[in-house]
Here is the input.
Amino acid sequence: MTPPDHTQLDIVTVAVVLITALAGGEIARYAGPYLVIIVAALIGSYFALQRRPEFGRWRSLGFVVAVTALAVVATGAASIVAAAGLGKLGVEVQAHYLLVPIAGGIAIVGPDWPEVGAWVGRLIRRRAERHVDGGGAS
Here is the structure.
């Protein structure tokens, strides 16, 4: 596979070029984004693990593997949805630019997603109540 024909230096392009140099072939085009996701998720899982000092060595390893796997599975779709949502707000961004923050964010939250969901639910409920109670536009 030849390197990309543009001069972008986003992290995904850099990963693709590095994998092309090391392994060559078409695989780099597919492996590059996943390498970026895995690195971002590993960094995020490190920070999530800091909230769990009671974990031993093996439990910590299992935690990092599970959180990284969650990020690998969810990041691609989440970045596409986020790019589309931002596009509707007038912010045009390609999905691959969102891979790092989304993978890192998924991993940093780790297993605390139920609490994040509850917080978002409370936020939506408060905004809806303000709107219904005559607060007008939120």
